[in-house]
Amino acid sequence: MGCGRMGGALLGGWIGQGVAAQSIRVIEPQPVDLPSGVVRHGDGSELPAAFQPEIVLLAVKPQVMDTVLPPYARFAGQAAFLSIAAGKTIAGMAKILGDSAAIVRAMPNTPAAIGRGITVACANARVSPAQRKRCGALLEAVGAVEWAEEEGLIDAVTAVSGSGPAYVFLLAECLAEAGRQAGLPSEMAERLARATVAGSGELLHRSTETPAKLRENVTSPGGTTAAALSVLMAEDGLKPLMIKAIAAAARRSRELAS
Questions:
Q1: Could you tell me which residues are beta bridge partners of residue 159?
Q2: Residue 84 exposed, middle or buried by CB count within 10 Å (0-12, 13-18, 19+)
Q3: What are phi and psi of 199, to 5 degrees?
Q4: DSSP, res 54
Q5: Taking the CA atoms of the chain, what radius of gyration do you get in angstroms?
Q6: Distances, alpha carbon 244 to alpha carbons 93, 156, 160, 233, 251, in Å
């Protein structure tokens, strides 16, 4: 259900991992480019009466979930529902699908578009071990997967990894602007900031050392990096600001949950 950016990223990941295109049906009212063999329906009512899905992926906006989900309640008790709709709780979906519905709530992030995402998932008691394994495998098609036993943790997950890419992109913006303020030509500042953030992220990804150790490796006592970090690591520096930002995002996630 839904084949926007995240749904499309997951679909591409599945096909890339060898899932048969003919085994996938996409419910998407808007025309989209789909891999050859995948069948698109404009509405769930177009599904054949005998259709028996193994997994129903819910990749629609949470605002429309209450409207579009009811026709799929007929699959409860046989299929697992895998939702990536932010802010829609398992209890909120169970009200529509029924108490027998096996539901996995997952929070991926946008690097899934390049196979480098990370997703945290939480399952209700109706999800069998086999369904949990299957949902995990489908999510792993676009990156790493973590499981949370308490659904309440999803709000913090949303704040850290779900929204986190935006914080990193903001860092690149700020780094480029600071370079311009320091006298660099605008395009050079942009290139330097982009390459530095991307390269540092890749180094962090490949390294077995902690972020703190990698930071220390760059920092010579009394040097230029130390001078900058004395500002960023001050009592009113980046750490308390990030804690405040994460708290705000988690609070908003709780407010939106239903």
A1: none
A2: buried
A3: -65, -40
A4: S
A5: 21
A6: 30, 12, 12, 15, 11
> Residue 32: what are its φ and ψ, rounded to 5°?
-140, 155
The pLDDT confidence band at residue 99, using thresholds 50, 70 and 90, is very high
Helix (H, G, I), strand (E, B) or coil at 252: helix
Q: Give the bridge partners for 121, in sequence order.
A: 106, 147
Q: Are 98 and 76 in contact (CB under 8 A)?
A: yes
138-160 pLDDT, tens per residue? Answer: 999 999 999 999 999 999 999 99
Q: Count Cα atoms within 13 angstroms, Cβ side, for 45.
A: 2
Q: Helices (DSSP H) in 208-237: which residue ranges? A: 211-218, 224-232
Contact 118, 144 (CB under 8 A): yes
CA 218, 220, 224, 226 dihedral sign is positive
In the chain, the domains with their CATH numbers are: 5-157 (3.40.50.720), 164-256 (1.10.3730.10)
The amino acid at 133? K
- Please count the other Cβ atoms lying within 10 Å of the Cβ belonging to residue 208: 5
| Residue in this structure with the two tokens 């605002």, named with its chain if needed | 63
DSSP letter assigned to residue 73: G
The rounded percent of the chain whose pLDDT value lies above 90 is 90
Which tokens is 118 given? 């990370």
Q: What percent of the chain has pLDDT over 70?
A: 100
CA–CA gap between residue 193 and residue 171 (Å, rounded): 9
Q: What is the pLDDT at residue 62?
A: 87
